[in-house]
UniProtKB/TrEMBL annotation:
The keyword 4Fe-4S applies. It catalyses: 2'-deoxyribonucleotide-(2'-deoxyribose 5'-phosphate)-2'-deoxyribonucleotide-DNA = a 3'-end 2'-deoxyribonucleotide-(2,3-dehydro-2,3-deoxyribose 5'-phosphate)-DNA + a 5'-end 5'-phospho-2'-deoxyribonucleoside-DNA + H(+). Pfam families: HHH (PF00633), HhH-GPD (PF00730). The gene is nth. It comes from Geothermobacter ehrlichii. Its EC number is 4.2.99.18. The lineage of its organism: Bacteria, Pseudomonadati, Thermodesulfobacteriota, Desulfuromonadia, Desulfuromonadales. This is Endonuclease III. InterPro entries: DNA_glycosylase, Endonuclease-III-like_CS2, HhH-GPD_domain, HhH_base_excis_C, HhH_motif, Nth.
Amino acid sequence: MNRRQTADLLDRLEELYPQARCALCYRNPWELLVATILSAQCTDDRVNRVTPALFAAFPGPEAMARAGQDEVEALIRSTGFFRNKARNLIARARVIVEEYGGEVPARLDELVRLPGVGRKTANVVLGNAFGIPGMVVDTHVKRLSRRFGWTKSQDPDRIEKDLCRLFPADRWVQTGHILITHGRAVCKAPMPLCGACPVSDLCPRLGVVKSR
């Protein structure tokens, strides 16, 4: 796809999903950071069912830093990989308290230094909690960006760079939301619903995109 076709496809998707947004429930950067970590290998719906009790018991980094492993595990067990997640939640909270005065840092290089935080999680927090442009590459974004011909890479970091080159920074956050929404609704894995896809005429996967 050339840049015009790429822009046309994203514009069409944005028209289709004007309300696309982060599906995790949160009230501040700390809660979004926690919820994003819990969402690994777990649905957003399940995370949203778990976090109210978790945040009631441990409302901020200070409380989480003092938590016992067993206490946290009991509250997040249904999200999967609960032992590792609990360990990282407590360790992350301690770093935030000790090094950042209890405030979640608003810089990517500082976020990825926190236990269990990678670029995807960091970009989720930056874009949604702080309004700082970040391109989230999760399983849906990876799948769709390859199907659309926006990248040839399998590496999330490389895909992030490719997408950031394609689109202006002020569209990065919403691009992630749009691709995730379309990936969940239509462009599924392993079999996309191409026959019902409202942007099939612009999709290079079907071999129907024509130069303008």
